[in-house]
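Quick one before lunch.
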Amino acid sequence: MAVVIHVLDLFLLVSSAMPIPFPSSSGVNMEEMSLTLKRMQQSLSQQAWALYQMLDLSRKYHICAQEPCCPPPFARVIDECFYLSLNNLTWQQARQHCRGMDGLLAKPKRVFALKSFLMGKAGPNTVFLGGQQHDGIWTWVDGSSINPSAWTEGYPSNWTTQENQCIVMKQDNHPPLSTQPCSAVKQFICQHPGIQEKVKTSG
Ligand SMILES: *[C@@H]1O[C@H](CO)[C@@H](O)[C@H](O)[C@H]1NC(C)=O
Ligand SMILES: *[C@@H]1O[C@H](CO)[C@@H](O)[C@H](O)[C@H]1NC(C)=O
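Model of the 2-acetamido-2-deoxy-beta-D-glucopyranose complex:
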């Protein structure tokens, strides 16, 4: 909170810097002119200093206009934070990778919003998400249930419960959820819970 007030103070400082009038043109008064220039320089350097401080603060603290605040490299999709990996890993390796980013393999509330995100990134057709099955019951990694209407027609099929299969999202499919062997090597999507406070120290 104190940081927000500090930033507002800086804004006021910048906006209160008044334009300085030029000396009257009735006569050339070098002394007056030089004084005006000095004042302008001073005013400009004050503004530059204030802007620099604001930039520095916004770098130092995550200042977000909207919640949740998604720390880079996560991007906000409606009210969730996602990251499309550049590297290709197995499902287990991908899960570990996402945990290492303080997140989870993605367990989207809105599968179609995540599909739009993937298409917007010009991502690969197939990516791992954080879904798996135990005894034929498919859930997201946090145990939450999967909306049945998110599955591609025919999925999850009977045979997929017999194999070591994990959930993928396919851009070409509508609805997009399908399954692939967990041992396949693919790009994946991580999810971050988001930072709820508008201002948070970076450490
Ligand atoms: C990951 O796999 C995709 C699809 O096979 C490939 O286009 C991409 O170059 C791979 N990325 C890396 C970092 O190897
Ligand atoms: C697939 O599962 C459904 C429902 O559990 C069952 O009715 C059907 O016989 C199964 N099909 C095969 C080929 O096992």
